[in-house]
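Weekly sync, protein design subgroup
Attendees: M.S., D.O., the rotation student, P.L. (late)

Item 1: inverse folding check
M.S. brought a backbone from last month's batch and wanted to see whether the design step gives back something sensible before we order anything. D.O. pointed out we never logged the input encoding, so this time it goes straight into the notes. Structure tokens as presented (225 positions):
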């Protein structure tokens, strides 16, 4: 009986080919998998996990963008290949020159575009009671830093991914409120206050004004990339 070529490749490939980056999984760190029923991480745990990955992976660097309205550090994770990390300053300069296009000829712009990297911004957690938004940042970061899948490695070679939490205070509030109930079947989101200290639900509609700490942090970071 003949075996298809793809099956031969699958059988002979290392069983842990997608797990060769030795970094801690969300389940090992939080005690549950992201997306498990009745389980939420708060922002304190989220930040601690990112810092753990920063120690373990050469694909990730965590930076503080500033403080939130309640004084928490608002974090950004920069994820790319180790080679790209060594040249971040160069790629930042290229991105800035292309964005501003001041004094650039078309030929110069094309040359810069050819040697630069795409910068991809992924944020989450803005609407704090839409808990998937913040938690996908955990899983996305893990998948990017631990996998040696060829397509993931291509992403990391071609792109600089900026992962940003948009509402740390809201995640802390919502997750702590939800998880306070020992009986998981009784957990709810009936929180007696809103999710941002000064403007209520969140800072979603603040981006055209930039009045809140979280918005200012993200706008400044966008302008400085």
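Designed sequence read out in the meeting:
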């Amino acid at each position: 009986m003949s075996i298809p070529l793809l099956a031969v490749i699958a059988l002979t490939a290392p069983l842990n080919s997608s797990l060769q980056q030795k970094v801690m999984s969300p389940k090992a760190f939080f005690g549950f998998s992201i997306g498990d029923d009745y389980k939420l991480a708060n922002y304190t745990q989220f930040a601690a996990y990112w810092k753990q990955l920063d120690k373990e992976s050469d694909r990730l660097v965590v930076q503080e963008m500033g403080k939130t309205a309640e004084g928490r550090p608002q974090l950004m994770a920069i994820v790319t290949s180790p080679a790209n990390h060594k040249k971040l300053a160069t790629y930042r300069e290229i991105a800035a020159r292309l964005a501003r296009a001041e004094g650039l000829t078309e030929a110069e712009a094309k040359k810069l575009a050819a040697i630069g990297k795409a910068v991809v911004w992924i944020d989450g957690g803005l609407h704090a009671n839409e808990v998937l938004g913040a938690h996908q940042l955990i899983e996305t970061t893990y998948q990017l830093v631990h996998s040696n899948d060829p397509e993931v490695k291509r992403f990391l070679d071609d792109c600089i991914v900026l992962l940003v939490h948009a509402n740390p205070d809201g995640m802390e509030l919502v997750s702590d409120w939800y998880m306070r109930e020992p009986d998981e079947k009784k957990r709810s989101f009936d929180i007696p206050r809103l999710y941002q200290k000064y403007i209520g639900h969140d800072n979603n509609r603040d981006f055209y004004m930039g009045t809140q700490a979280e918005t200012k942090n993200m706008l400044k970071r966008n302008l400085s990339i």
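Discussion: Confidence is low (pLDDT under 50) at residues 1-20. Residues 132-146 form the longest helix (15 residues).
Action: P.L. to compare against the previous round before Friday.
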